[in-house]
Specification:
Elements: H1 6-37, H2 59-67, H3 71-99, H4 103-122
């Protein structure tokens, strides 16, 4: 397998970013349209923040709601996709730099990936 050039790596990362942002937008917009189609009996009160039920706070709950076409879960899933896009970019960069055998950039990208994963997993405490 040949080493990808810097330009090829940039193109693949750009394509992945475009795909991630587009997928997140499509899912969120579709969930928003489904949400607008629902009848709403009461007016929302915004004096106090309501984070939603437990189904909207976990990845498994969001996924189950998305599979069942729950509008709020679909919007939340779109946001999860949007958050996952830069993380996937760093993963792509680690793999691309490893294929280029560029140890310094693999090290730096790996550190960035570890910081991202740590902050995502410990940021909700």
């Amino acid at each position: 397998m040949r080493r990808p050039s810097d330009h090829e790596l940039e193109l693949s990362v750009a394509g992945m970013l475009r795909f991630g942002v587009t997928a997140a937008a499509v899912v969120s917009i579709f969930g928003g349209l489904l949400y607008l189609r629902q009848p709403h009996a009461s007016i929302s009160r915004f004096q106090k923040f309501n984070a939603g039920g437990p189904g909207l706070r976990t990845i498994s709950g969001i996924w189950q709601g998305t599979v069942h076409l729950d509008p709020r879960s679909m919007i939340q899933f779109g946001l999860v996709l949007l958050i996952a896009t830069p993380v996937a970019r760093v993963v792509f960069c680690v793999i691309g730099f490893a294929r280029q055998k560029d140890r310094l950039y693999v090290l730096v990208s790996s550190i960035v990936l570890l910081v991202l994963l740590y902050s995502l997993s410990h940021g909700f405490q």
